[in-house]
Specification:
610 residues, alpha+beta, DNA Primase, Chain A, DNA primase DNAg catalytic core, N-terminal domain, Dna Topoisomerase Vi A Subunit, Chain: A, domain 2, 4 domains, 5-stranded mixed sheet, 27 helices, 55% helix, 10% strand, globular, binds zinc ion
């Protein structure tokens, strides 16, 4: 089952491919297109191209290509229906419910189902078992209220090897899923599975829609092996990706949207602590550095991100790293200095909520934070040397470089100049010097990079004349009809091109776009080929409309001629067979031979017109 085509089209037309792709790839305008570094293969010079007019993208390095839906699918490794839902939400378009029931969806669904069963079981242990009581006592002793513990659905994994395994078997959950979800482990195939999480407090990790994607599990018992890590987490599964989820986002997304602010903290208990104090707009990463995808996730709810950091050197460095990723997703960043060594959990235990809110209200711009902590000589207590100072200015200029909005960049550079008592003009000069040298290195590398990735074989298989035909069929619906009327599909060699023509013929729209055809094509390679052919090889920069049209007609004529020749060649082969047969049977071949010669003459005429 699929969503209705009109819905899919409505969604595609309501989102801007530049914005969707731009949240993952930094794009720069280049002629009619935008280019950037391909997110699907390693490259140093940009060959990843987006065409806004056609609403498609295409990588000339690795051959990836498609429309907004295929981009999201590929980038986040999610099925089509999920990509449609995500973009529908972004565009504010409501979708009919329960339309989609594909095998793909069911495959993903069974992971959620088993996680939700496990989560219920862990919670039940926390609240209603004798062993769970010591875990609950521990959490309560850390100052958390029952309400907060329930909001975040904390649980307890008992000190047993087969607790969950047996409970799942009893409830008739299939063992394969239990193992694949990482809730249970196996020493070797065919041995009895055992629980991954034992004697730990369980933190369910939800996706933004409230489905349980995985778990974090914290050690709390003093008698446990001191060598074992404080936190362990679910392994990566089809639904659990550390870099794509944010702890607390589901519980707090409404507040984040309403208050238009998010506080990025480090740990699960930091988020809980903030919530408990009525500051319900915190989220945390899952023990790793912030990724561009997480920044993008935040971008759906607010553009204002507050970072809490110590003003010590590692704190400042970490702030800068996080900031680059956030700026890359077009978010605004401000920093709250909680003082040395303070995390919000411990800060809130020893200070009032009001003090915390005041600190948040007094938040600084990142430039302010960075320069203030540096000029104070945060670490050594002495002033910086000129060398150190200029080095730090360059660090900040690097940061400016990750900001997309040129006006914002300018404001930041002015601020850097003011804070570091440097001439603003010098800061600008330094920035452009850096840009120029970046450009030079990437241009120099570009030359060597160009031929590294081979064209995928399915592209190479299509010969030049059929590529031209495909390009016209995809890009020029008006011309395409006339062209297709004058050739015979039998003479088309590429099975992909045949499929594209079938798509065009079954299209309900007269003026379809490449992105329409990509939506209609269900096969991944076919989608890539359509994207590839959408970038018309006959489009030249600086060509005016009339010139371009003229050229296009020339190409069309050439195609018609080549296909005429193909048809004649096909008929020649048939005649030759017939002549052979007739000779073998001792029949008169004169009329067949005459036909053959006539056809040869026509072939010559078509190939070399007078
Ligand atoms: Zn690529």
């Amino acid at each position: 089952m699929r969503y209705p085509d009109e819905k899919i089209e409505e969604i595609r037309n309501s989102v801007n491919i530049l914005e969707v792709v731009g949240s993952v790839v930094r794009l720069k305008k280049s002629g009619k297109n935008h280019v950037g570094l391909c997110p699907f293969h390693q490259e140093k010079a940009p060959s990843f191209t987006v065409n806004v007019e056609k609403q498609i993208y295409k990588c000339f390095g690795c051959g990836e290509g498609g429309n907004v839906f295929t981009f999201i699918m590929k980038d986040q490794n999610i099925p089509f229906g999920e990509a449609v839902r995500q973009l529908a939400e972004k565009a504010g378009i409501s979708l009919p419910k329960y339309q989609e029931d594909t095998a793909e969806k069911q495959k993903v669904e069974r992971f959620y189902v088993i996680n939700e069963f496990a989560s219920g079981w862990y919670q039940n242990n926390l609240w209603h078992s004798k062993d769970g009581q010591k875990a609950l006592d521990y959490i309560l002793s850390r100052g958390f209220k029952e309400e907060t513990i329930k909001t975040f659905e904390l649980g307890y994994a008992p000190d047993e090897w087969e607790g969950l395994v047996k409970a799942a078997a009893k409830a008739a959950y299939d063992q394969k899923t239990l193992l694949e979800s990482g809730l249970a482990l196996q020493k070797s195939p065919n041995t009895t599975p055992y629980d991954r999480f034992r004697n730990r407090i369980i933190f369910p990790i939800k996706n933004e829609f409230g489905r349980t994607a995985g778990f974090g599990a914290r050690k709390f018992d003093e008698s446990e092996d001191p060598e074992s890590p404080k936190y362990i987490n679910s392994p990566e599964t089809p639904i659990y990706h550390k870099g794509r989820l944010l702890y607390g986002l589901f519980q707090n997304k409404e507040t984040i949207r309403k208050q238009d602010i998010v506080i990025l903290v480090e740990g699960y208990t930091d988020v809980m602590s903030l919530n408990e104090h009525g500051i319900g707009f915190g989220v945390a990463t899952l023990g790793t550095a912030l990724t561009p995808r997480q920044a993008q996730l935040i971008n759906r709810y607010t553009k204002n991100v507050v970072l809490l950091y110590d003003a010590d050197v590692p704190g400042v460095k970490a702030a800068l790293r996080g900031a680059e990723v956030l700026f890359g997703a077009n978010l605004d960043i401000q920093v709250v200095n909680l003082g040395s060594g303070a995390d919000p959990d411990s800060f809130l235990r020893s200070n009032s909520k009001e003090t915390f809110i005041e600190a948040v209200e007094n938040r600084q711009s990142i430039v302010d934070f960075y320069s203030a902590s540096l000029l104070a000589g945060a670490n050594s207590g002495k002033d910086l040397s000129y060398n150190e100072k200029s080095e730090r200015i360059r660090d900040m200029i690097d940061l400016v470089d990750s900001v997309k909005d040129p006006l914002k960049r300018e404001l930041m550079m002015k601020e850097i100049g003011e804070r570091m008592s440097a001439d603003v003009k010098t800061i600008f000069k330094e920035y452009y010097r850096k840009k120029r040298s970046q450009y030079r290195t990437s241009a120099a590398r570009g030359k060597n990079d160009r031929k590294i990735p081979d064209k995928p074989s399915y592209l190479a298989e299509i010969d030049r004349i059929e590529r031209d035909l495909g390009s016209i069929v995809i890009n020029s619906p008006e011309l395409s009809q006339a062209l297709l009327d004058s050739i015979e599909t039998e003479d088309i060699r590429s099975p992909y091109l045949k499929k594209i023509i079938a798509l065009v013929k079954s299209s309900k729209k007269k003026h379809y776009t490449p992105a329409d055809l990509i939506s209609a094509a269900e096969e991944e390679n076919l989608q890539k080929i359509i994207a590839d052919l959408s970038f018309d090889p006959h489009e030249f920069p600086k060509q005016d409309e009339e010139e371009a049209q003229e050229r296009l007609l020339q190409v069309a004529e050439d195609i018609i001629k080549k296909f005429k020749l193909r048809r004649i060649e096909r008929e020649l082969v048939v005649l030759q067979e017939q002549i052979k047969k007739a000779e073998a049977n001792g029949k008169n071949t004169a009329s067949l031979v005459a036909q053959y010669q006539e056809l040869l003459l026509r072939k010559n005429e078509v190939a070399h017109p007078r």
